[in-house]
# Entry
Amino acid sequence: WNSSGSNNWSTATLQTALNGDYYNRSNSYSSNGLNTTAQSMVANVVWTLGGTANYNSASNGLASHFYGYERGDTVYSGNPKAFVGHVGLMFPSDYGYATGGGTTYNRTACLAKEMYSWDSGSYKTDCARGSWLYNSSNIQWTLSPRSDVSNLVFSVLGNGYVSDGSASGARGVRPVVYLKSSVQIAEDGMDGSSGKPYNLSL
# Structure
């Protein structure tokens, strides 16, 4: 997230890489990154950087709580509350709201359980694995920092729960962009599934 260890996204190593070489598809990323067609579809937007210090109980750790934190103005002293750029990361609430639930716990039950506890029993199988953003082989960074310390950032662990980790640690990265309003989904029989992804056009 940031080689310096700071959870200030505006100066973070990952922010610079995503909005620099990755967005501009430089030679250092070879075929990875956004080509000129993709760049023309991506909006330059405000990414909110609110965080929290408390997230491990049902009174403060639900996806709905994180949604509020992410858009709030509680940040570590000196850190910005927002950043303008093309590429960011998923929020903890994105991961939570992406769940469809499962057999024991449906989506409503999952969203009523703190994401810190999504690694236990049927919460793991239904809530975590029921989220299309879940990745069992990778701990994934989110955009949201802790607000009470300068070096911790929230991430989704391989076991499926949301916790925090050192900004200088190694995690998986899922780049996120917002599409311009002029971008359309091409009508060609695709349904948005992994086998039939949507085709986008301007």
